[in-house]
Specification:
Layout: E1 3-8, H1 13-25, E2 28-35, H2 39-49, E3 53-56, H3 59-71, E4 77-80, H4 81-89, E5 96-99, H5 107-115, E6 119-122, H6 126-141, E7 146-148, H7 151-160, E8 168-175, H8 185-188, H9 193-196, H10 206-214, H11 216-229, E9 236-240, E10 246-252, E11 257-261, H12 267-275, H13 290-293, H14 308-318, H15 322-338, H16 346-357, H17 366-386
């Protein structure tokens, strides 16, 4: 029976690469797609993949798309807004939901999909960063599998197969170090938006590219790894590996380390999640040529210059609503940096201010998390205007 998937965030980097994998293999049916506002690309995707339903976050854009489809006599249903995302995530005909939206917006539809019994291919790390305990508990209660799509977590997931949880010593997340790996503090003070968007290895969306430059992306991945793999923060290490060939590693109690290697191409972990537990042919991705690679290098992350990584560890240790506040503050300041309202080094400065101001709630409810998220965004915007 043909697997049917829904992609939340189909016009973004992960979404378009997911559709590339699906289009090449032609053995998975696309039941639904969701986009924020790019209806031109979404219309092309509708024509190519013929989904049953699509969602556009902006209602006015949804109306415009609906009119276009009527003219072309295309009968795909168009819905809109956050309610539309939840409807799409619980679509009865779908087996798997690929959550590829960016930011906190992915939390509610992912929780709804879990309660509806859908397998989750998770590319939205903020879902676990903000509400890891709630999400993993719900997945367990509803007997739902969560398959990581982030390259680092997919690598760990693969390296853990066939081994007992108790034999794990530590998880080692690799980081490229971003475009400013060798910069001094003086150089970081002069960083432009254009320079920050030039990642040396990966083709990603603008938000995650800035997160990679600040090492916040790795910090968020540390929090995500804690909940995905049920380990302590002290069991998660980060190592800078500029070549991005080793995507992450697992060290076991006997001293053995298992690594997953591959080209820095997100279609590898996407395909692994879509076809799990099987592997599918991906010969369209170039294989590694170890002779030409020659050497692989490693170094410790510079937490003094890139404090966002340490902030994530701090938030994880504090627990409660602090990771949600860290995430919300980061979303606001990254958007502000992209809009050239603040400087690159203002990103960690404001996040630290917000974390210091927050009164943490332990064992939060979903309502607590959403409330603290809203507070953190408002306070972060205030600090942006004050700088």
């Amino acid at each position: 029976m043909q697997k049917k998937i829904v992609i939340l965030g189909s016009t973004g980097s992960i979404g378009t690469q997911t559709l590339d994998v699906v289009g090449r293999n032609k053995d998975i049916q696309v039941a639904g797609l969701a986009a924020y506002s790019n209806i031109d690309l979404l219309e092309e995707q509708i024509i190519a993949f013929k989904p049953q339903v699509v969602c556009v976050m902006l209602p006015e854009k949804a109306t415009l798309l609906e009119e276009r489809l009527k003219v072309k006599q295309i009968h795909t249903e168009v819905i809109s807004g956050e309610e539309g995302l939840v409807t799409l995530a619980t679509l009865e005909s779908a087996d798997m939901i690929v959550t590829a939206v960016v930011g906190m917006i992915g939390l509610l539809p992912t929780l709804a999909a879990i309660k509806a019994g859908k397998t989750i291919a998770l590319a939205n790390k903020e879902t676990l960063v903000t509400a890891g305990e709630l999400v993993m508990r719900s997945a367990k209660e509803n007997k739902v599998g969560i398959l990581p799509v982030d390259s680092e977590h997919s690598a760990i997931f693969q390296a853990l197969r066939g081994n007992e949880h108790k034999s794990v010593s530590k998880l080692i997340l690799t980081a490229s170090g971003g475009p400013f790996r060798t910069y001094t503090k003086e150089q970081l003070e002069q960083v432009t938006v254009e320079a920050a968007l030039k990642h040396p290895n990966w083709a990603m969306g603008s938000k995650i590219t800035i997160d990679s430059a600040s090492l916040m992306n790795k910090g968020l991945e540390v929090i995500e790894a804690k909940y995905l793999f049920d380990v302590e923060p002290s069991q998660i290490d980060v190592i800078v590996h500029k070549e991005s060939i080793i995507h992450s590693m697992v060290e076991y109690v006997d001293g053995s380390t298992i690594a997953q290697l591959g080209q820095p191409d997100m279609r590898h972990p996407i395909a692994y999640a879509l076809y799990y537990p099987e592997r599918t042919d991906a010969s369209y991705i170039k294989s590694l040529d170890f002779a030409s690679i020659g050497t692989l290098s490693f170094e410790a992350p510079k937490k003094n210059l890139f404090p966002c990584l340490q902030f994530a560890y701090d938030a994880l240790e504090i627990g409660g609503t602090m990771p949600a506040v860290l995430n919300a503050a980061n979303e606001v300041v990254v958007a502000s940096f992209l809009n050239k309202q603040i400087r690159f080094l203002d990103i960690p400065k404001i996040i630290h201010m917000v974390m210091e101001k927050h009164i943490c709630i332990n064992r939060p409810t979903l309502e607590d998390i959403l409330g603290c998220d809203e507070w953190a965004r408002e306070y972060s915007r205030k600090k942006v205007t004050e700088l």
